[in-house]
């Protein structure tokens, strides 16, 4: 048995057991702003932070019931910043509100709707008209959504069973959905000034984890990157404006609050060692970035770093951010698809070898 094929198969099985979402992941390549030092994060932010609604801002949220979305909505509500939140389904009067980890999306939506300054708008990222309605009166969009893993997850390995035209496919959600967001936000009458988009590490299509995630998710990482490029390459079109963006590429997001984390940040999609990060800190980063004009047209990699090399709050780091200056690859979708095909081929070979080995073993036993 080929040792490399066997190793790939074992790693694949281990990694798939830990894949809970395909909406974001690791870091990226490039240069960047610094990661610096600080004191402790507190509930009250510094003078450079958004703490109240003195500028009559209103934030549109997409990804309302996801873990990151609900975290951001609660944070904004505490800051007295109004939000308009996109929901695919109306909230039933019989739904019991809950924000517990075991709560259904409907229960989470019902809970969030009870918070101060929170308004729900029914719609979908593939319905431009609903996005236009969502954006009315808003100054920014937090696009904290992403395609979820197909169920059963094995479907992701079989393109004929997981068509790119499926409404839940990453191409429709991460790419066409973002195209619709940009279309609605760039209307002349739109009040949107910036789109904050959560993605992940998308410039290494042949890395092991990119291959595995793309294999199981319908090329989610690849379509996330193509969506990033839509933001970076907005055309100057008559009767349309160009909207600023802030792209955030977080580490491996998890619900557990780690405590005492040292925050690191690099602009220009800079490469950083991949680490776990909490949903709380990434929600805070997305919200805080809106306060800083220098964060417009920037791609931020967000990880946790060693003591003495980072900050306890994002404010100081965000002050040093510069807009994107390097040339990002125009498109990487072909490479992402090629990597996934290679991975699928190796998996098939591995399973074939293992199957034949088991067949021979059982033949000897019986």
Note poorly predicted spans. Answer: 1-52
Task: Tell me the structural class.
Answer: alpha/beta
The largest beta-sheet arranges its strands as: 3-2-1-4-5-6-10-8
Order of helices and strands: HEHEHEHEHEHHEEEEHEHH
The overall pLDDT average reads 85
Q: Helical residue percent? A: 25-40%
Task: Report the sheet with the most strands, covering strand number, pairing sense and barrel closure.
Answer: 8 strands, mixed
Number of helices: 10
Distance between the termini: 22 Å
Shape: globular
Radius of gyration: 21 Å
The number of strands is 10
Into which percentage range does the β-strand content fall?
Answer: 5-15%
Q: What features would you highlight for this structure?
A:
eight-stranded mixed sheet, 366 residues, 10 helices, 13% strand, alpha/beta, disordered N terminus, 36% helix, two-stranded parallel ribbon
What does this structure look like?
There is one protein chain. The protein has 366 residues and is an alpha/beta fold. It is 36% helix and 13% strand. It is built from ten helices and ten strands. The strands form two sheets. The protein has an eight-stranded mixed β-sheet, with helices on both faces. A two-stranded parallel ribbon has the order 7-9. Helix 1 (3-17) packs across helix 10. The longest helix is centred in the last third of the chain and has 33 residues, at 333-365. The radius of gyration is 21 Å and the shape is globular. The chain starts with a helix and ends with a helix.
